[in-house]
Each structure stands twice: as C-alpha cells, then as structure tokens.
User: What shape does this take?
Amino acid sequence: MSDALKQELHEKLKNGVINYDEDMVAEAAKAVVENGLDASEAVFEGLVSGMQVVGDLYEEQEYFVPELLMCADAMYVGLDILKPHMEKKDLGMTGVVVMGVVQGDVHDIGKNIVKMMFDVAGFEVYDLGRDVPLEKFVEEQLRTDSDLVCLSAMMTTTMVGMRDIIKQIREKNPKVKIMIGGAPVSEDIANVFGADGYAKDASNALKDAINMLGALKQLQEDTK
Assistant: This one.
C-alpha cells in the first residue's frame, strides 16, 4: 500500500478533527480499514494529532469549549470505526487500572485517549467517567484491587482534589500506584501531591504505567 495514500488519509483524519468535520473523518477512517492500513497508526497520526492541534488552538483562545466538543465528537466518530481494527499490543506488562476525571471536571477527552491506549495494550480498565466523587476512586480501587489509579483534571480548581484522593487511597492501600494527568498538572505537582507518576500525554501515560507496574510486581516478588 502506498505511503502517499496512508499520508493522505492521516491528513484527512487530522484535518477532519481540527475542522470538526465528522463526515470527512468517517470517510477517511473507513478508507483506512478498506485499504488494510494500520488502524492504530491512523488513530495516533491522524485523530490524536488533530486533537493536539485543537488543544493548541484552545490554549491560544482561537477555539473555545463549543469547538473543543465538536472536535472531540469528530474524533470519536473516527475512533468508533477504527478501534475494532486496532491490534492488541503485547508490551510485556499488563494490570488492572481504575481511571476517571475528578469531581467538578467534565473534560474527558484526554482521559478517553489514555483509556484507549490502555485497552489496546491489554490492560483491564475500569473507567469511572467524568465528574467522579473523590471517595468513588477509593471505593473502586478497593473493589477491583487495581494495580494503578489514574486521575485526570483539566482545571486548576478541580486538580487540588487529587491530593485528597491520593491521601485516602494511600491510607487504604499504600502499595497501589497512582498517576495524575491533565493540562494544569506538572511533575512538581505530582511530587507535592504524592503521586507516583505524571503523564503529559497518552503515550507517556502508558510508558509510565508499564514502568510503575514493573516496579510494583518486583516489589511483590521481593516480599514473598
């Protein structure tokens, strides 16, 4: 299959997301499948690349919340078509993950991309959705005995709730690994809040998660 066609379809997916053109995205996604192209590559080179541009436009105040939501809708149209064709990747480490967007925050685009990456990598994911009450994270971690909890926030006002969640989870289960992410989050904030990791994007979230779970498994082996 020609690289030119692949490039063209990736660009259509990307531009379709940026211009919130659901029809363009659907047409390009179907063409990816029909031509036997790599669906995972199309998602990240096309759809996710488009959302990264949208994020920049939002930061620069060229796009606002309505445009952001329409772009996300276009991305989800593409995901619905491509996700069934994404191959599960054996990355040598899997585990159970609880994830969600913290209370007061309904911005779940980044969280949904991270969830998709965990799904594709073979993790068992319990997605609590958005605007999740703080105590729900603690309850779900205990119920599922998850290896990892991922907290997301897009606003500084909601991000501060992460500290309480981390403290409560640590009191109940000091061994569980906790990762935080979202626009206002930084490595310094992760350290102050007591998180094990901070993910600035979906790829880093997956890499960090695998590293964390590797350390956790090693700890469990050492204490046997």
